[in-house]
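Let us work through a complete example step by step.
Step 1: write down the sequence.
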Amino acid sequence: MPAAPKTIALILPYPPSVNHYWRAWRGRVCVSAAGKRYADTVTIAAAIAGLRGLRLGGALAVRCEVFPPDRRRRDLDNVGKALYDALTRAGVWCDDSQVADAHFIRREADKARPRVEVTISFLI
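Step 2: predict the structure and record it as tokens.
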């Protein structure tokens, strides 16, 4: 198996908000259908990029450039939950608790192509 690259870059769709990511069902809180669809999309993107099941280990730094779908006010920290969970489910890393350094940068809204440009690198 080839060695993992030192830096990984992915362009992923804009994730559902935290309010749309979780749903209450029969007294339990679980991931919504929108959250599951997003995770499936990220898994496909990771597979196309050759990153599915890579399972990066160790401490990681993540930089996310966020291009929202419109100019509405939103909290940048809400982007991370669905994104990190989807990357975990895709097997890009073992667990999102490995993220020791995270940066979220809001960019200009892009109605035509809302997205998150993710760069993952190892902390040494």
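Step 3: interpret the result. The helical segments are 18-21, 33-48, 77-89.
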